[in-house]
Amino acid sequence: MDETQRCNPINRIQSSRRLTSLATTGDSDTLFPMAPRFHRIVRKTRRDGSEVSPWIKYLIFGFNILFWILGLMITVIGIYAWIEKDAFDNFGRLTTGGTLLFDPSLFFVLVGVFMCFIGFAGCVGSLRENTCLLLFFSFSLAVIFFSQLAFGTMVFIYREKVKREGEKQLMIMIQSYRDDPDLNNMIDWIQRSWLHCCGVNHYRNWESNIYFNCSSKSVGSIEACGVPASCCRTEYFHNNKHCGYGTLEPLAGTHMIYTEGCLPKASQWFERNIVSVAIIIVIFAVLQIVNICFAQNLRNDILVQKAKWTWHTHPLMNYHRY
User: Which residues 6+ apart lie within 8 Å of 114 measured at CB?
Assistant: First the structure.
């Protein structure tokens, strides 16, 4: 081609169109003869299966949705109990003497809210395959598990000190017996239905309560020098709701009430049912460990699946050099 043909505008336009056509068709050998050759891979194989196990995914989801609903119900019950006894208006009175720590309704609210958070993280994390929520779920269960383990170990090592502190707190509960309806009902259930006991170490522990102390006679209290009706033996309680009145008098008979304290009775009950208690503790611990393992396994599967997606969608994965 001479200089005239190269300078011709029509020939230049045709050459430009030919280069554009070669570039769009991918003929690299014509455009760049010295460049390395690439061959486009046409994948006709079946798409790889998911790394995420549906069994683990929906097992975690089903378990935690029940856990979530149970936590919500416990929270509602605790809030309802607080509203019924006007705890929000009498919050200052409940905090006096440390009785707030043993308020059953507050315990229900705290446990229920914590269960809701854990259940929500497990449900949404497994269903939506959210690695952050699954990490929070497994981490929370791990914290609970090791906290329980540490608490049990400390109780075993310092059991005498724990026993003295528990006795002190139980005395505070007896002193606040009439101040909190929930505490009242809980103590009545322990004394009448569960342990069949009266007081902490002895039935005379009820003298520390201002309503049952003999000094209340001066203000006309009919419960003075007596014990609650829940201390009465079953065969006498059905016929006489006042069977505990006057039992703290020096010469009063005690054949109609339980005279043994609840703390010794609780120790005896624990010794008789040590196998059942141990089985329940082991089952509860195994469930926690299994859920931690399942959550971590599901999280790892999700991360592996995301890595595969990233690798398969990379532009260079559609070509190989030869």
Answer: 71
